[in-house]
């Protein structure tokens, strides 16, 4: 089969012929129609991820057709259009993943290929209203956003939500779901164009996070602070989120792209009765809830650009530049 292979740190992915994987016991083989990128793929390529091993086929997100059935797997899955849950071996505790938790695309070969094999219980029917490209854009980012909003922050209709750094896949999926559930959503970005696009998706408005004292200015626009704040950056600007939250607010963060928080204003946290909630990926129940939510509300993930598999390196570089609005997708079958 054709696959994009990463041979080492700071190397470009290369399209080459590799053996087609065959399903083991209780596994299925999926003929991938589309795969999607995540920042995780860029971090692995740069060597900024734990458990590196090479060569590796990157890619956590994918959708396609089940073509082969391993021993003990459900034969009825054959020829079914499926979406792959990339979070494997969560463990028995729904509150946090266990030591054996893995994400497809490292340590096991992922979806930047014509075929992938996964345990059969990690494939679910592709939402009928989504194309393969749209379905491929959903799994990792969607599960992350769903768990952050609903499992961790317990978002309720009518609450005011702030989503920082809108434009990335998780942030946009969180925006779409929060709007669909009846929340009032506001955003931050360094780009006025991205804020305008977020408004077109249902956000009430937004502000550049380069604006001086932006939490106070945004609160004036919104008519108050925010019940739920969703963040992926952390870093030096995290203190602004403490200011943006209402007393009793919940701040849920699923990443630290700007690094650790250098100084935390502890007094603001305890005096405002804030909850700081970490979140990573999602359980199988979170993933099932995500699919039900997208089906019920007929939501469609935002796709920034679609590339052929052979141009996977160009797609990775676009992600690295951070200019995208929505998911970057590799179309494998035309």
UniProtKB/TrEMBL annotation:
All copies of domain Enoyl reductase (ER), residue ranges: 8-330
Tree of life domain: Bacteria
Name of the protein: Zinc-binding dehydrogenase
Gene Ontology terms, MF aspect: oxidoreductase activity
InterPro entries: ADH-like_C, ADH-like_N, ER, GroES-like_sf, NAD(P)-bd_dom_sf, Zinc_ADH-like
């Amino acid at each position: 089969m054709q696959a994009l292979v990463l041979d080492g740190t700071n190397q470009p992915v290369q399209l080459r012929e590799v053996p087609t994987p065959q399903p083991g016991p209780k596994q299925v083989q999926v003929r991938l129609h589309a795969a999607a990128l995540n920042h995780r793929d860029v971090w692995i390529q740069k060597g900024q991820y734990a458990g590196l091993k090479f060569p590796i086929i990157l890619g956590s997100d994918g959708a396609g057709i089940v073509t082969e059935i391993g021993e003990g797997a459900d034969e009825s899955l054959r020829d079914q259009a499926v979406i792959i849950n990339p979070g494997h071996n969560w463990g028995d505790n729904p509150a946090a993943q266990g030591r054996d938790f893995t994400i497809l695309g490292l340590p096991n070969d992922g979806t930047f290929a014509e075929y992938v094999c996964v345990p059969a219980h990690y494939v679910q029917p592709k939402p009928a209203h989504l194309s393969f490209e749209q379905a491929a854009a959903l799994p990792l980012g969607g599960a992350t956003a769903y768990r952050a909003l609903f499992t961790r922050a317990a978002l309720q209709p009518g609450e005011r939500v702030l989503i920082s750094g809108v434009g990335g896949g998780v942030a946009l999926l969180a925006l779409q779901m929060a709007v669909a559930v009846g929340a009032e959503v506001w955003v931050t970005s360094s780009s006025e164009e991205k804020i305008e696009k977020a408004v077109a998706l249902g956000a009430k408005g937004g502000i550049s996070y380069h604006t001086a004292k932006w939490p106070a200015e945004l609160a004036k626009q919104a008519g108050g602070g925010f019940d739920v704040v969703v963040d992926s950056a952390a870093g030096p600007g995290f203190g602004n989120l403490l200011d943006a939250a209402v007393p009793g607010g919940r701040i849920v963060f699923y990443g630290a792209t700007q690094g650790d928080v250098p100084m935390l204003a502890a007094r603001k946290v305890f005096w405002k009765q804030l909850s700081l909630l970490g979140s990573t990926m999602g359980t199988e129940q979170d993933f099932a809830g995500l699919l039900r939510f997208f089906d019920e509300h007929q939501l469609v993930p935002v796709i920034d650009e679609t590339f052929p598999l052979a141009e996977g390196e160009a797609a990775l570089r676009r992600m690295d530049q951070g200019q995208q609005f929505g998911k970057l997708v590799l179309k494998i079958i035309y």
